[in-house]
Amino acid sequence: MNKETKSIWNMEKADPTFDIKDYLQRFLRIWPLIILSVIVFLLASIAYLRYYSVPSYHINAKVLINDENSSSGNNAAPAIDLSLMFGAKNSVDNEIEVLKTRSLMEALVSDLNLHINWFHVGSIKDVEIFEHPLFLYVENITDEDEPLTFLIEDINTEGFSLGFKSKETGEFEKMHVAYNKSITVPKCGVFRFKMTNADVASFKGSYRLLINTIDDQVEDLRKRLLVNLTNKMTSVIDLQLNYPIKEKGEFILEHFIQKYVEESIRDKSRIADSTIAFIDDRILLVSAELAGIEGNIQKFMQGRGITNLTAQTQILLENSSQYAGKVADIMNRVEILEAIGETISRPNGKSLVSGSVLGAGPVDPGFGNLVSSYNNLILEKEKLAMVYTADNPYIVNIDKQIESAKQNISDYIANTKESLLASVAGLERNTNKIEGDIRQVPEKERAFLDLSRQQQLKQELYLFLLQKREETALSNTSNIAGIRRLDNPKAEKLPFSPNKRAILAFSFLIGLILPAIGLYVSDSMNTTINSRKDIEKRTNLPVVAELQHNDAQKDLIEFDNARSALAEQFRGLRTNLQFLMPQDMDKVILVTSGMPGEGKSFISLNLANVYAASGLRVLLLEFDLRKPKLSKTYTDSKGLGISNFIVNANFGLNDIIAPVPSSDNLMFGACGPIPPNPSELIMNPRTAELFKQAREQFDIVIVDAPPIGAVTDGQLLSEFSDVALYVVRAGYTPKDLVSLPEDMRREGKIKNLNIVLNDVSAKNKGYYGYTYGYYGQEETKKSWLKRNKS
Q1: What pTM was estimated for this model as a whole?
Q2: pLDDT tens, residue by residue, 78-92
Q3: Residue 179 in contact with residue 193, Cβ under 8 Å?
Q4: What is the phi/psi pair of residue 499, to 5°?
Q5: Of 195, 372, 432, 550, which one is least surrounded by beta carbons within 10 A?
Q6: Which of 330, 547, 556 is nearest to 424 (CA)?
Q7: Residue 453: its H or E element
Q8: H/E element, 222
Q9: Tens-digit pLDDT profile for residues 295-334
Q10: Of 716, 694, 714, 712, nearest to 704 (Cα)?
């Protein structure tokens, strides 16, 4: 006994498990709602795709970046190694960051007026267009940080109607605008409109003109632009622009690449411009010095009366000129090296200089590589500075590389200068021999030779600088960006957004899921018993019958030749009760419930009738002494009842019962006058006498007792019963109330207690619904035949 009690206690404490099979069965029963839900969501998604969504296309392009750092000479290796050591990005990564910069996109928006957008006004949504009907020139705008919206209507060859919301009154105003004339819109700005080459008649309807702020338009386009590296082993960059108009997207991306190429060429031209400026400064200085020397020669010859030189002096001058030319060439290099060293050594210097200014020679290639590496680092830092702050690791790293490049150039200049000066010393020794010969010529000619040598040195330097200036100018005209277009901007055929298949599939799933969620939420919020399984999850008491809803207008069911589902269910209950009352003296059936309104009186009435239909003598006792209901059905009683029998010992059972007109085997005992103390009345010994006489005279006694959840009358009457039926009404009885009969059984308050599930929906067929449905269908067919015969 203790083991059984413990098992029942544990079962009550456990939460009912979720039955997926039962849930799926109930889910499939609402298939009309599921189909309706799916159709509604699919139609809603189709309407969204057709009328509200804005398609967006991928516009793709590919460009190849020539990595100039990879073609640098061996002398640039230290800078490259340093870059790798610090984990810096290569030139392709830097170009990707440049393509993402705001300044590049802002220049594009400003040049092409991309912040001016045209929309065709529709009944549901406004559609952006590329071929706009008019040209707009913004001559002045009041507030550049606030977008403006105009409505363009009635476009013809003379003008159009311009609508706008007044910032002064807040009302919508209209004005007529003529072409090619400046108009002032109050609190907005000054604008001028011009006709396009397109046919004005082709632009019908209304148009919305949006003048967006440049900042907002730049941010919008930057979000739409994707820049990625195709492969880490290559320098090919993928450009992708997402835009709702194919033609406009291709136009924007095409000019974006063009703007990037122009900026790249401009950076390269800065090196040549800086070199030319450097050479021009040197030319001015050398020209002034050369002019001074030539002036001195002229004064010397005029003052001394020298008109020609002797043959010996001419030979000495030519020999001296040869050595002077070599010295001049070397000294030119020394002066240029010193000037370049002075240029790059300036604090925070950013000057760009070309190594080609040294001219031809064995030292030029190495120096050119060093200067080229330095220039590239300067340009790279300028590009990174547009993206990162000064304390960013990339900027700090490239600053270190620039200082390293400066030191390498300074070391190169020092070593080269030392070598060149050594060469000058050797040439000067040969020059000294010639000067010894020159000392033997007359004093006038010797002085003239000194001036001529100085003139030749400066003239050689002047011609050298002019040559280098022309070479640099010619190379500047042939600059290319180092960028090659592999694929021109091209829009994909189909839009990537919205994804029609994904949206339709999602709508289909939502159409399925929402009814499922609704069913689950309904089950979770439903606190009443709905099926046999709800009972079995909460109690071990057997369910002896499931009775479906009574669609008839009256409570009493006709069992003679009746084959309805409900009639068959009562017959099934009668059969099950035979197994619960195996002894001959087992005759009394107590019918009760947990609360009023669960149908115990309905079940008592029809259970008595189904027993009477089988030929047994049946007595139906109305022991609900508080709220009797059966008396309303059987109005032919004698006026006496159970309460009269208990309080008056002179009455016998036959005095208070009366036959039921519709059945020969059924007798009914009404409750009689309602007593003030029903419980005490039931405890009277006369109650036992009543049941004793009933057992002697009848085969079956049906007791309609009060609800045990409200009063104790049912528990008192269970002492006289052999079987107790606890009625649970589907969709009405709270789930928590099912624990009441379980407690009664466990505590032994009611013996042989069983459950009857009443008012089950025909859709919830339970265990026997399909069989009963079979009988119900047959009865329906039979009644249909009767109707046709009549």
Answers
A1: 0.58
A2: 333 333 333 344 578
A3: yes
A4: -80, 100
A5: 432
A6: 330
A7: helix 443-477
A8: helix 214-224
A9: 777 776 666 555 555 555 555 556 666 666 677 677 777 7
A10: 714
